Amino acid sequence: MEGYGKRVLIAEDEESVRRLLAVVLEEAGYTVHAVEDGMEALAEMKKRRFDAVVADYRMPRLDGEQFLLLSRLMWPQTPTVLLSAEHTDLPVILKMQGACALVPKPFDSQGLLRTLQSAVEAACSCCSPMSVIMPN
Fold this sequence. Notes:
By secondary structure, this protein is α/β, with parallel strands linked by helices. It has helices at about 15-25, 40-45, 65-75, 90-95, 110-120, and strands at about 5-10, 30-35, 50-55, 80-85, 100-105, 130.
């Protein structure tokens, strides 16, 4: 199991997507903690260390971009994979802010797992190219 022993924080405001992400990651062996938005995610990151974060780009209170900026200030080596239904110039903007990867919604579970595993293994060096997973 590729995620065995790794802790992943999920920040996703849509309950059905949050549950799906949790199931996919747990079945892959990750220990998952899921929250509804970026504010809750930051609060959880203050309590415990995570090996990676999977966060939605559009969330209430604190969106993915703001969350990314704040979390990178406090935990620069924690890999963050962002999910987004938007397919504009986000990859360039988010890479400059430290995202490891941008995964389009709807996402392919296996593609997400490969991306997350790569991010965790590389410890998300901010100098490495950001991955963009394109939908099939």
